[in-house]
Amino acid sequence: MTSNPGGTWPHAPGYYTGDRPKIVTSRFEYEDSYTLQRYEATDGYKGLRAALSKPAADVHEEVKNATVLGRGGAGFPAGNKWGLTPQGVWPRYLVVNGDESEPGTYKDRLLMERDPHQLIEGCLIACYAAGLSRCFLYIRGEMALAQERVAAALNEAYAAGYVGKNILGSKFSVDIVLHWGAGAYVVGEETALIESLEGNRGMPRLKPPYFPAAIGLYGQPTIVNNVETLANLPWLARNGAAAYTAIGTATSPGTRMVAVSGHVKRPGVYEIINGLTTFRDLLYGEEFCQGIRNDNELKAFVPGGGSAPWFTEDQLDVAFEGPQAGAAGSMLGSGAVMVMDSTTDIPRAALTLTRFYAHESCGKCTPCREGGTWLERILSRVVDGKGTDADLDQLLEVGQSICPGEFPHASNAKLGISAVPFPYRMNTICFVGPSAYAPVHSALTLFRSEFEARVTKRNLIPVTAVSQ
Amino acid sequence: MARLTEENVRLAREIISRYPKPRSATIPLLHLAQEQDGFVTNEAMEHIGELVGATSAEVYGTASFYEMFKFEPVGKYLINICGTMSCALMGAEELMHHAEARLGIHMGGTTPDGLITLERAECQAACTEAPCLQVNYRYRFRVTAENFDTLVDQLQSGALEGEIPAHGTVAAVRQHIPADKAVGAIAPEDVTEGPAWLDGKAAL
Ligand SMILES: Cc1cc2nc3c(=O)[nH]c(=O)nc-3n(C[C@H](O)[C@H](O)[C@H](O)COP(=O)(O)O)c2cc1C
Ligand code: SF4
Ligand code: FES
Questions:
Q1: Which domains are delineated in chain B?
Q2: Is B25 on the interface with A (CB under 8 A)?
Q3: Most buried in the list A20, A138, A273, B114, measured by CB within 10 Å?
Q4: Which of A100, A261, A340 sits opposite B128 (nearest CB)?
Q5: CA of A189 to the centre of ligand 1 (A)
Q6: Does residue A449 form part of some domain?
Q7: 3-state secondary structure of B119
């Protein structure tokens, strides 16, 4: 029952290796990849040693030069983010975002389960470089195995002197505290994560301040980084920025982990070359997903997690490069691709996502709290064949009240639709509100006839007056 | 069933000591309470409030935000079936219908013997292995109707006792920071200087 359908890779369910550079998945092939013994035998903690043999500022500079893009969704370069902390304000904290729960996203959990020491080493390098004196590793509550593996790894690392007081006998001292959540998607938003870590309801904070780097945990400068972002640092510290930027493109160097799910022949998690790999490579390539299941036609795909506007075959040649995906009308988000083949009931598929965001709204702002639920109710009605023409316009109108103005979407040559580039304006504190609208908007823009077919039957019911 | 046991109070104090402010330990302590009793009791919330310096209403305010905390008894095994997009595309709805029929309960319900609670869940970060579910937060991938039935048989016969702890226990391994290795948590207002290693020189 715990079958690994890939068959080739029994140790990391869903993960497929390949003849490509590996920065963060290099140990996945080992059954005992999560132990300190294996880690030390495979370059483990050498990056930490390399970093500690330089002044902290030099390590920070190296990370800046490598342009390590944040892998949590926004793609902000880590080195630059660390530089946003105000001068002379102490203490500064590191909060690791291991709350992975964006629909379609599956990578941070693998990194925590399969290579927890790599993450720990990444945290240590970040703390050293940016002068962060305490690290909180926030893991999603529902991930039992990840919590166990990280706890065990931390216990090993403390015992071996890699974490805690005077690391490797040096003046560098930092504690890493394992913290675990309790189930709430919105807590993945960095200011909500901080609220949760302070023991509160996990609601996003009002902006500004825009970055917790200025005011974060307990009001102190706080760096929030994604698990995969930090997992890149040990390799980078060992091999240097030049080796890192030699992979991928100048604006999107290195690799990134991408999960492809839905209607492909070989759904899986792949470490791909950043910036160069296209969606066509990923969906149809022999080393990746090998085409659409049953050789069906591709209908649409979500390129970057449930919040992202949808792409169709017209965008297959877009590469994994932030600005390219943005100009094409969507985003790469958290490296999550969900594929729909020609058999997909589009309104229903959109509903599964809209329901998710409506359900996960924290309730702090009205357009999201009311709008999301409203979208879900109308869409459910349409899916159940109880909707009307007016409902379709109503969907767009409600969307407008969450995010006014033209909403981003991809171009579609057949339908004569031209792209509106990402991002969008919004009336909400965080992205959850707009995310409830994104799938509705994409589905309605690209596949309006499917919605109309569902509501016409209803319109044929003759309207009779109460009395003649 | 009530306040935290002596052993759990010891653990609670250990956890609290890792945070610069005690209230940060609220969620971990709620997990501890749920592990002890299978759900979070009012007495436990009051006790947690005393330990972290909050009222029981404040603790409940936090606890009620999070899906994992239950305030009434649930089954020994909580089965969460994912219904978000990737799983829906691969047959999650059908699986949920099957589960309801097999167990004779609706989503949100518990079997009369108190063994199994069934819930619809959202994306579990296993989308490539759809449709998937968790039993007390332990995964089952690419679940078919047949292997759902096998799972239920195994839960009923007790065959999974060793692998899956009763509801409440999430992680079976805990972090312990040895006293001689700990840097220690200092309240932010008591920190006046930057870290020692930012002196412009290499640490090693
Ligand atoms: C609603 C919402 C949910 C998010 N969920 C996650 C998440 O689960 N994991 C994550 O790393 N980042 C998530 N983010 C992004 C974080 O706010 C933050 O940008 C990120 O953790 C920063 O790390 P990075 O710069 O290393 O990517 C989310 C953002 C929003 C608005
Ligand atoms: S957009 Fe939604 S989830 Fe985000 S703060 Fe507003 S109500 Fe909460
Ligand atoms: S959609 Fe089910 S695990 Fe992600």
A1: 6-71 (1.10.10.1590), 77-157 (3.40.30.10)
A2: yes
A3: A138
A4: A261
A5: 5
A6: yes
A7: strand
* CATH number of the CATH domain containing A387: 1.20.1440.230
Q: Is the ipTM of this complex over 0.95?
A: yes
* Structural domain of A293: 255-341
Domain match, A230 and A319 both = no
CA A254 vs CA A16, A116, A244, A247, B202: distances in Å: 18, 20, 6, 5, 27
Looking at the fold, whether A224 and A201 belong to one and the same domain comes out as: yes
Residues A180 and A282 in one domain: no
Q: Which two tokens stand for residue B114?
A: 């108190």
A438 C-alpha to center of ligand 2: Å?
15
Residue B190 is classified by DSSP as: G
Task: Examine residue A445 and state whether it is found in any structural domain, yes or no.
Answer: yes
A148 falls within a domain: yes
A contacts of B30 (beta carbons < 8 Å): 182
Same domain, A64 and A120: yes
A360 CB under 6 A from ligand 1? no
pTM score over 0.90: yes
- Which of A394, A266, A399, A408 has the alpha carbon at shortest distance from A337? A266
Which residue has tokens 């690799």?
A255
Work out whether strand A336-341 and strand A298-302 pair parallel, antiparallel, or are unpaired.
antiparallel
Same domain, A385 and A303: no
From first to last of its 468 residues, chain A has per-residue pLDDT tens of 344 444 344 578 899 999 999 999 999 989 999 999 999 999 999 999 999 999 999 999 999 999 999 999 999 999 999 999 999 999 999 999 999 999 999 999 999 999 999 999 999 999 999 999 999 999 999 999 999 999 999 999 999 999 999 999 999 999 999 999 999 999 999 999 999 999 999 999 999 888 999 999 999 999 999 999 999 999 999 999 999 999 999 999 999 999 999 999 999 999 999 999 999 999 999 999 999 999 999 999 999 999 999 999 999 999 999 999 999 999 999 999 999 999 999 999 999 999 999 999 999 999 999 999 999 999 999 999 999 999 999 999 999 999 999 999 999 999 999 999 998 889 999 999 999 999 999 999 999 999 999 997 655 556 566 776
Q: Report the amino acid identity of residue A431.
A: F
Q: Which of B67, B76, B71, B105 is nearest to B164 (CA)?
A: B76
> For position A298, which CATH number holds?
3.10.20.600
Number of domains in chain A: 3
